[in-house]
Amino acid sequence: MQASASSHPAEAPQAGTDASGGHPCRLLLIDDEVGFVDVLAKRIARRSFEVHKAYSGTEALRIIRDLRFDAAILDLKMEDMDGIDVLRVIKRMAPHLPVIMLTGHGCQEAAREGMEAGAFDYLTKPCEFEELMKKIELAIQSSGGCRGRDARAVRG
């Protein structure tokens, strides 16, 4: 499964663009629940974000190696790698990348561990879409907003 960028409808609000309105903010969704990721990616893309998807921790790390992101959403529990382990590697690779942890398990200890490992914040699944969007916008603002993009492409 490759990362894919979603389209940006012309009528979408400009919530996911940089201050000049020119570059869409680039977001990475990391979760092994394919249906959840696909639906969430479409909804976020409607807000003018450039959304990339990773269906495993391993895939996410490969994508982050090749592209620069403005924020990431990371599931805590995945089949191939624990979300906390993925977060630790992400923070070594891209220390300023704000990462929002998602968990369907409601485990406060794991959420606390994620915050200690450098997560920007966390939400428990299912969460309200607008609440997630507010967290994404705060995360991007906290890191200085959307920046210019690397010309590197995701390697297959």
UniProtKB/TrEMBL annotation:
PROSITE patterns named among the record's database cross-references: RESPONSE_REGULATORY
Domain Response regulatory stretches: 26-140
Coiled coil feature spans: none
InterPro entries with a match to the protein in the record: CheY-like_superfamily, Sig_transdc_resp-reg_receiver, WalR-like
Protein name: Response regulator
SUPFAM superfamilies in UniProt: CheY-like
Membrane-crossing residue ranges in chain numbering: none
Positions of modified residues (4-aspartylphosphate): 75
Region (Disordered): 1-20
Entry GO terms, CC: cytosol; protein-DNA complex
